[in-house]
Amino acid sequence: MSETDTRRGGGVDPKLLEILVCPLTKAGLRYDADRQELISDQARLAYPIRDGIPIMLIDEARQLADEEIQRR
Amino acid sequence: MQASTDQEKAPFGFREVAASEKHGLVQTLFDGVAQNYDLMNDLMSGGVHRLWKSAMLDWLAPRPGMTLLDVAGGTGDIAFRFQERGGGPVMVCDLTPGMLAVGRDRAIDKGRLTRFAEGGIDWVAGNAEQLPVADRSVDAYTIAFGLRNVTRIDKALAEAFRVLKPGGRFLCLEFSQVVLPVLDKLYDTYSFSVLPALGQYVAKDREAYVYLAESIRTFPPQEDLAARIRAVGFEMVSYRNLSGGIAALHSGWRL
């Protein structure tokens, strides 16, 4: 992944993912690189990453369909 | 508007709004002023906000490897200073994506690393009352001129406590109550006449700066805020007045 990609939204910092949690459940998140989303299976929410910035706001999250949820 | 959430009110300047409404209002307001936010801070305070922020960093005493969560610091003012003084990785968490975009672009212009993993600064949109941050994960939490805009202050303070590691430090820089007799009159005139006019000319947004002046007056004074910081579990809570109480710095430790 190029430098520009990581800055502008091509990836999420793995170290950041260690401390970033779902604001609702406080559980860890799953990164979906294709959709540019951070997924909280417990809360059934997908938080968008826009222009490289994770938008961890419940109001802005997408509701997950049943088939999208992964059980751990 | 929902009838159920309308019961709970929150101050938005001198107006009372439904608690559920406040964060949207704050978000809109800061999206509107994001581009001019730092310029306005300089004009409004005659540059003094830089001294206040510097005082905050003095008290925090950053050291290598120290991790910081800076809340409501979208344009990066605190994050950049923290790193210039030798601090470690920073997560900036702000309610308004527009403010974060300004900070992140500025970081890129300055050639700063933008990843937490590399000791850089990461930018995340989040609500201070519902932080997207794991329990006991950072060494320091700062909020500069942000707590005033939070709907439920006590909830934000409890969240600050939750995310700090034991031994972690909480610091809040906020406008406060002027403690000098003559200064308070001058300051009143300045806030309610000069500020909104400046806002109108420079940021083309008078209302945002009327809100600023009003929100300062509805924010709890020094002792009240200290008591509320203690109430969520912080210890060794203390505060310092800056510029005669125009601003105050509150500190607490999670022990």
Characterise the protein shown here:
The complex is a heterodimer of chains A (72) and B (255). Helix content of chain A is 17%, strand content 24%. Chain A is α+β, with helices and mostly antiparallel strands. Chain A has a domain at 30-70: N-terminal domain of TfIIb (Single Sheet). In chain A, strands 1, 2, 3, 4 and 5 form a 5-stranded antiparallel sheet that branches. In chain A, a hairpin with a 4-residue loop joins strand 1 (30-32) and strand 2 (37-40). Mean pLDDT of chain A is 84; it is low at 1-9. Chain B has 255 residues and is of the alpha/beta class. Chain B has a single domain (11-179, 209-254), classed as Vaccinia Virus protein VP39 (Rossmann fold, 3-Layer(aba) Sandwich), CATH 3.40.50.150. Chain B is 47% helix and 22% strand. Chain B has a 7-stranded mixed sheet with strand order 5-4-3-6-7-9-8, with helices on both faces. In chain B, helix 3 (37-45) runs antiparallel to helix 8 and helix 8 runs antiparallel to helix 9. The chains are: A alpha+beta (72), B alpha/beta (255). The interface between A and B is medium-sized, with 26 and 27 residues.
